[in-house]
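User: what does the whole thing look like in 3D?
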Amino acid sequence: MKEDRENRKADRGFWIYEGGKTGLFSWIFTTDHKRIGILYLTSLAVFFAAGVTFGILMRLELISPGKTIMSASTYNSIFTVHGVIMIFLFIIPGIPVSLGNFLLPLQIGARDVAFPRINLLSWWLYIAGGIIALLSLFTGTGPPDTGWTFYAPYSIRTGTNVSLAVFAAFVLGFSSILTGMNFITTIHRLRAPGMTWFRIPLFVWTLYATAWVQILATPILAITLLLIILERFFGMGLFDPAKGGDPVLYQHLFWIYSHPAVYIMIVPAMGVVTEIIPVFARRTVFGYKAIAFSSIGIAAVGFFVWGHHMFTSGISDTSKVIFSLLTFLVAIPSGIKVFNWVASLYKGSIKVDTPLLYVISFIFLFCIGGLTGLINGTLATNIHIHGTHFIVAHFHYVMFGGTAFAFFAGIHYWFPKIFGRMYSEARAKLAWLFLFIGFNVLYFPMFIVGWQGMPRRYYDYLPEFHNLNFISTTGSWILAVGLILLFANLIRSVRKGEIAGSNPWKGTTLEWTVPSPPPVENFEEIPTVTHGPYKYE
Amino acid sequence: MLSTNSTAAFNNVFLFLLVISVVLLVSITFTMIYFVFKYNRKKNPIPVNIESHLLLEITWIVIPTALVLAMFYYGWSGFTAMRTVPPDAMTVKATGRLWSWQFEYENGIKSGELKVPRGKPVKLLITSQDVLHSLFIPAFRIKEDAVPGRETFLWFLPEKEGEYDLFCSEYCGVQHSSMISKVIVTNEDDFQAWYSAEGRKEPGAKADEKLSGYALLEDKGCLDCHSVDGTIEVGPSFKGLFNRKVQVTSSGKERELVADETYIKNSILHPDADVVKGFDDIMPSQEGNVTNEEVDVIIGYLKELK
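Assistant: Here's the predicted 3D structure for the full assembly of 843 residues, as structure tokens:
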């Protein structure tokens, strides 16, 4: 045991080096991209846990019609806070700020990101935004009850603490913009010698595409949210028809950001999936260029499809037709990725460890999310399922079954690199089983109940929807058990896992060439790159 | 795929999409799992590196593109049917308000439920008095937002007699999930009987003080938020309100008022002027929704409500 501990100390790399500060300060004032990645990972886990708790409370309320455990106004606040936390504090920053921060410099052969201090500022803005969001729950006139979309004129008129919550999202936007700018500069300027654009790992390509969306789309949200605040305080009459404003204008502005934001959430997840498949199939990825370009394609076309959130909002029928067509076009690059992933398994030498298990589930769940997305994008069918639980099911399949499952895949895959230790494979697979079953029991019934006509954001519902809601709620408990098992296994393995070594999976990207955990400035000597990222010959 | 009504338009397109989706999902999942077993490391220790295959990649760009364009096209044509109102449709105005629906017919009668005769197309002209709502009738697969200051429309063909749910599907606050009504489809004769009877009653009813009072409060949607039995809902109860002292906030300042005739009239027409303490400034102005005579009738009723 004693020897083990000393061993650990010697190999603790960036975990030991405090950079002239001590204790907590060596973390919250660090400029090391790896420490910032860990800061984000920890904060994301805290907000995720809060978001899950609110989600489980919502499901508990919906276990039967009528009042179960809370009042209607409490329920409305809880689904709003669940949405705000999950969207703005978990899934938008999500993979880029945690895994991206940790791995981007490692994967391109750099010692850090281009602007390490701005990187730290991003984290501080993120925490500030998180604290303001929490303040909005406990101060003033009570937690916001508008839904995460803050639709006008309700958001202008409600007496709840909307301004503060909106300001939190505004601050979080700046965190996102700065991270995007930092990543783009890093990828352009700090690649190792010989790492041409088509030798970059595909995860980095997705971070690159995402970063552009972050810096181009987020300012639109920022100004829109600011307008909500101005309208609330000064009654400017931008969105409230009672004062001559236009509520549909608000929806346009909101979705011009919030649809591209969907790609901020999912594209990095696709990157994680693309990293994992070649390593566990021990072969090169199929169609590198197609995957790289499809990331850019999704990010670019994603800017022009926001109107599909508004097919029932009263916009003109002609614009609905155009937005529907564009929506179908954005489906094509996603399809290409799925086909390339499956083809990358062909004639591989496959071992289904936990990361690949999550990746396979990702592909299955993401296909369900994506294909139901086509049903949403089709005009004739959208009208009926719009604003129902069908939509709730659809975006949870994409965001949870997609992004979060890929996040879990990535955390397991890079766990030995980050912590220098291996998690318990058997426990990880058990957690996966609960998560996968729980997820489907929780969300699949929502497709049916939504198709039957149950609207979303309903505190109470008609008796005919009872059975499916009941099944869904039991799913939330199975899912919760899965999450507890997952986190318990990982937290335990940080201290007690077996020493992993620098390359336990036989990965070929640059992060696997340095010790685990990586030393302070990553590379003693910057490597020279002579071939593509997934070379297994 | 020309459809004659919204229900058929949705069902046809949905079935088409569902079949394609299930086929795609099953083939992708099956292929993936087949590869995982077939090329398992134990059985297949030496991988083969295949970097790309141009023809294959072009195939899986072209075929899905054709598929999604077909989906788009069917969706568009179904949608066109849903937006092409037959010329013989009966027009009903639908107004959303916190938290009920009101349907107004061509002869001026108003109803909280949408009563329509079987076999006649119905065109709904939709608007809102306050915030966004959305009129959703699952049985007819239609939905459109009620936007204050705008008029949107929907149409449907009720083919079978019966009662169908009608929901609000755009979140609108505390009682969003109780903003439920019904579509009642009857045969032509029953409908005409109701339509003409109500139509005769209505013009007289407006001046008829005896009927009004409570009926007016119900008709105008007041009772969605204010009770007459002392229960506190979203707004203060009407019971015992008249001539009582109330704590209000007027332009940010708290003060005490007596709920006299002036106060009540002002609260109906300018509800944001004096907001009762403990409640949100959420009520829309009823100017244009109630006449002066109606206000007097309501006040008369409230005086009696001890």
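In plain terms: Residues 148 and 178 of chain B are 20 Å apart (CA to CA). Residues 6-83 of chain B form a domain with the Helix Hairpins fold (CATH 1.10.287.90).
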